[in-house]
Amino acid sequence: MKKVYLDNASTTQIRTEVVTEMARVLSEDFGNPSSTHSFGRNSKNLIELSRKSIAKNLNCSAQEIIFTSCATEANNFIIQSCIKDLHVTRIITSKIEHHAVLHTIQILQNQNKIAVDYVNILPSGDIDVVHLSDLLSVEGKTLVSLMHVNNEIGTVLNLERIVKICKQYNAYFHTDTVQSIGKTPFNLQESSIDFLVASAHKFHGPKGVGFAFIRKGIVLTPLLLGGEQEKGLRAGTESVHNIVGMSKALELSYSTLAEEEKYITELKDYTVSQLLAHFPEVKFNGKPTETFYNILNVILPFSEDKTSMILFNLDMKGIAVSRGSACQSGSIKPSHVLAEILDAEDLKKPSLRISFSHYNTKEDIDYLIENLKLI
Ligand code: PLP
């Protein structure tokens, strides 16, 4: 059966060059990086070379990169340590953050560790910047945590504008950059972002590895206690093959960025034009020309009785996309992101998230449209 993968915001296909590199490390470089003999030193060296390469790609210093098991861990580490070590008493965030941030903050609030303010979301899915300034004008040691690219609708936060406002009010700024690292350039030396996070599997690297960027001068204590790995900031034997794979994947993503971004943008434009041609009443969550180039979230003009069957029917045809609203996946809860921006009527309709990579083709899109028409 033909297989079409259009769920690249969930995870991406690993690049073959990354697999080759990882397989070599797995079979040859098995030393424990904490061991002082040559096997251990060799593994340690691979980790430090990977750290340097990642730092170079983001224009920051290697000591600012801390390896973790995933972005969820990195988000938890930063948010929890900000309260513990930087004496943050209030977090300003939004209701459209990924659960790795949203649930963490809600649990800390329930434990009475912090006060939480939610910045308003505009109908476009963008942050209300005026409201953010209002919230920041209230005294208190504050962390602002706002994601760069929304994983469901693809809205893009103007990071430099937000960081400027945060610094004006002396607030720390953390951003979940899981959907944008490796897909858009970062120059962290030129920026005042305090913390960001990444997960390798979102940029054609392996699962089970990520990193936190913690700006030089900010001193945090670890979430995971034990050994002295990662300068005592993250105990546990490092996953050497995963770290090397992540660094290779990031290097490849940045070396091919311009051509892949152009290719994917054209594919997204093609999808929009085909959807409009075949389903004139289609609507988009977030303006397709303004949302991130690899994410398209669409409300299909299908009747409610067809809603529950869409994902299932597409899956039967080998097509992987993601839900945008509840009913299709059998879940009773609507998407917390769409619930913030859609009215009750549109929330009932089937929204689909189509997310692209350079591995997709126009034929994939034609196959998707053809099968949507059969529903
Ligand atoms: N943040 C965002 C925006 C995401 O899209 C995801 C994954 O879907 C995560 C965090 C969590 O990443 P991981 O599951 O790799 O920790």
| N to C succession of SSEs | EHHEHEHEHEHEEEHHEEHHEEHHEH
Rg from alpha-carbon coordinates: 21 Å
How far apart are the first and last residues' alpha carbons, in Å? 18 Å
Overall geometric form: globular
Beta-strand percentage? Answer: 5-15%
Topology, number of strands: 13
Question: Quick one: CATH superfamily of the largest domain?
Answer: Type I PLP-dependent aspartate aminotransferase-like (Major domain)
CATH topology of the largest domain: Aspartate Aminotransferase, domain 2
Low-confidence stretches: none
Query: How are strands sequenced across the largest beta sheet?
Result: 2-8-7-6-5-3-4
Structural class: alpha/beta
Q: What's the tally of helices?
A: 13
Q: What fraction, in percent, of the residue positions are helical?
A: 40-55%
Largest sheet: 7 strands, mixed
Bound molecules: pyridoxal-5'-phosphate
Give the name of the CATH architecture of the largest domain. Answer: 3-Layer(aba) Sandwich
Report the average pLDDT across residues.
95
Q: Into how many domains do the coordinates divide? A: 2
Give a short summary of the structure:
With 375 residues, the chain is α/β, with parallel strands linked by helices. The chain has helices spanning 16-28, 38-58, 71-85, 99-110, 129-136, 159-168, 240-255, 257-278, 304-307, 310-316, 336-341, 344-348, 362-373, and strands at 4-5, 65-68, 90-93, 115-118, 142-145, 172-176, 195-199, 210-214, 283-284, 295-299, 319-320, 322-323, 351-355. The strands form three sheets. It has a seven-stranded mixed sheet with strand order 2-8-7-6-5-3-4, with helices on both faces. A four-stranded antiparallel sheet has the order 9-10-13-12, with no helix packed on it. Strands 1-11 form a two-stranded parallel ribbon.
